[in-house]
Design brief:
Length: 392
Amino acid sequence: MFGLLQLPWWGYIVVTLVLTQITLFGVTIYLHRNQSHRSVDLHPIVSHFFRFWLWMTTGQITKEWAAIHRKHHAKVETVDDPHSPQVHGLKKVLLEGAELYRKEKCNQETLERYGYGTPDDWLERNVYTKHSAAGNIALLIINVILFGFIGITIWALQMAWIPFFAGGVINGMGHAIGYRNFECKDASRNIIPFGIFIAGEELHNNHHTYGTSAKFSVKWWEIDLGWFVIRLLQLFGLAKPKYVPPRATCLPGKSSVDIDTLNAIITNRFEVMAHYRKTVIAPVFQKERKKQNRALSNEAQTLLIRDTSLIKDKNQHTLTTVLEQHPSLKKVYEFRLKLQTIWAKSNAGPHALLNLLQEWCKQAEESGIEALQHFVTHLKTYVPSHCFQQRS
């Protein structure tokens, strides 16, 4: 039996990739960035297209997806996280991510607490939610009519695409394997710098650091295809990004620690700490490693930059030993913690925080550690910018 469309063998592969990519755009742009995080506004035409498309290709209900994802952010890496590999193990999340999702969507407390603000119109109640499986069946029929028996294979791949890549790869590998631009308070990682295959969702550490950003790429060499589509929709008035990652602004020659410095480093605190890791901890660590004939391990360097909440008990002894044996590393490590406590004091007024920052800079300049002194010189050049406003 042949379908209405006769294609060469490679044509069916292209069609499958295009169709699954549209589904990925629906997940990342509509379910994730628009519904879960409200980081981008979509025109009703775009929103409903994605709702309809996802109903056919995934059967996912907007309220369930948004609620589970919001809970993941709120309870990340804890026993209440619906799909943390740090809790459940990488193998389980990677291979059984869809099962973990199905289990959590039956939790009415999750849906009631985290599923607010999602569509609740007639179509959502009477079609998409009430008959969530009907869309999958309709898609199977359409595929067979268009492509013949091979349409069943295309349909099967469409059904498996999101459960495997979103439910397994992103939720699993995205919290276990890859690189980290920022030391946020969870184990999120960027799987690869080129967010093409999964529409930008690979840039998971960037997303967890700036959860309300519509753009997942941060470094110039990172690619977020979902953001590219959002910008394309914006050209036609169909999308409006609300937030993007902050961009640190420095004023050459500025040499004072004032309220502008304070506001700038609080806004750009993740970038500031990434710079501290690169220009202070890394060179001091390498200097100590040369002294010890490379006795210091890469694990030790990782522990020096990792958020304290992520250091496991079995690693704490290693960190304590390193700090005891290397006074210079202990000093830069303690300065790192003291700097982080400044923006953690949310109840303190701006003048109190400014005094803390000025005192921190003064002590760092008197530390005798050249890398730390250079960092303070750079820190003083930070000035505020309207980082979370829409920009090109």
